Amino acid sequence: MDWKSHAAALADTIAHPGSDWWAPVRETPRHSLVERWFTPGRDGWNTVDGPADERVWAAAAYSDTTLVTRIGPVHADHAIPGKPVTGHPTSSSTLPSLVVTMLRHGRLTPGVRLLDLATGSGYSAALACRRLGDHLVTTLDVDPYLTRAAAERLDRIGLHPAAVTGDAGADELSGTFDRIVSMVAMPRIPASWLSALAPGGRLVTTIAGTGLIVTADKTEDGGARGRVEWDRGSFMATRSGDDYPPALNEVFAQAVDQEGDDVTRSPFPVLDVMQAWEVWSMLSLRVPGIEHRTGTGDDGTRMTWMLHADGSWARAYTRPGEQTATVHQTGPRRLYDELDDIRWWWLRHGELPVHGAKATITPDGTTTLSRGGWTATL
User: Fold this and answer.
1) In this prediction, what percent of the chain has a pLDDT beyond 70?
2) Domains, the chain, ranges and CATH?
3) Residues 202, 217: contact at Cβ < 8 Å?
4) CA dihedral angle for residue 50, residue 52, residue 55, residue 57, rounded to 10 degrees
5) Interaxial angle between packed helices 277-286 and 335-349, expressed in degrees from 0 to 180 and rounded to the nearest 10
6) For residue 106, what are the CA distances in angstroms to 126, 128, 157, 202, 243?
7) Residue 249: pLDDT above 90?
8) In this predicted structure, what is the pLDDT of residue 64?
9) Under a CB-based contact definition with an 8 Å cutoff, are residues 71 and 88 in contact?
10) What's the confidence (pLDDT) of residue 242?
11) How far is CA 373 from CA 90, 352, 357, 376, in A?
């Protein structure tokens, strides 16, 4: 494959000549790191074999698109051709622009030692190696196949970072680093990251269930201080096993058509929360672990369900022509009331306080976000 022209076009799309990341993107054959991937289909996820069609391979590998490489415990390299795989994505080659965004926030100046968390396909490690040099890059993933496959493919393109199998949320990380950049979303900042950071070191991560990018520099007391960046990004949540815990299907079965304890009317129409990044982020901080599902009725009625592991659920719908929503709720928490409180906040203040918030992290990893009288603790 004549990949260099494709990589150059990608670099022009997500960077600019003279930037720190323009040359690394131009010089990295992403297709060599993602030979097979999944695309969604009616019956599940279908495997695409890149080498079987170089045109399709190049178009996918050099687009600014996330390529899903693992569904549940099944990697695309091991999937049976023509047999759809069902489940949720558990690994991917993240869209290159977001990878560059995270590395840029890491301020990877020459000479710093980087821990790249969540190896995935190895693309983020490849870009970091181009920028810093192999000897300064360590990449870690919980999946031994991913670290092994990425190391082999990186080796084939002349890059040799240290590839380690381990849990990003483990109590201890081996080594000392000037930068920790996570390509996996964390529910909170692990204390082990702070212990592994050198004095004055910097960490970059997203918060699970949100679109928030947190950057922080290590302080003298062993904690860190920083902020939620104004741009946004979201990654798969960290996992410790082959797959994520089962979705809340039993709670959803109750929420589909039961009356619930309370039936009220919201002054706002149904919102697809997952597409409203600030609202989604703030709600997830209020109710960690909340799940969302949406649908549209045959008559155009917009529907949404909110679910939680404690048994709480909410169902709401807005019929065509309506500007309000009928809401059914039950359980220990009134999930839809939490959403409406956030929407009222936005109307009162003209914005939500999550982006630009100050981030204060104690040595044990407790993270407090604050802005304009609002606080949230992870």
Assistant:
1) 98
2) 3-232 (3.40.50.150), 249-349 (3.30.160.690)
3) yes
4) 0
5) 130
6) 15, 10, 24, 7, 29
7) no
8) 97
9) yes
10) 65
11) 37, 12, 10, 10
pLDDT at residue 237 tops 90: no
pLDDT in tens, 271-282: 999 999 999 999
Residues 303/315, Cβ–Cβ less than 8 Å? yes
The per-residue pLDDT for range 269-323, each reduced to its tens digit, is 999 999 999 999 999 999 999 999 999 999 999 999 999 999 999 999 999 999 9
Q: What is the pLDDT of residues 152-197, one digit of tens each?
A: 999 999 999 999 999 998 888 999 999 999 999 999 999 999 999 9
Instruction: Walk across the sheet containing 313-318 and list its strands.
Output: 262-266, 325-330, 313-318, 302-307, 291-296
Q: Round to whole Å and give the CA distance between 376 and 357.
A: 10
β-strands 177-182, 114-117 pairing = parallel
Alpha-carbon distance values, 225 to 106, 193, 212, 357 (Å): 14, 13, 16, 11
pLDDT digits 0-9 by tens, 62-78:
999 999 999 999 999 99
Asked if 239 and 170 touch (Cβ cutoff 8 Å), the reply is no
Count other C-beta atoms under 10 Å from residue 14's C-beta. Answer: 18
What percent of the chain lies above the pLDDT cut of 90?
89
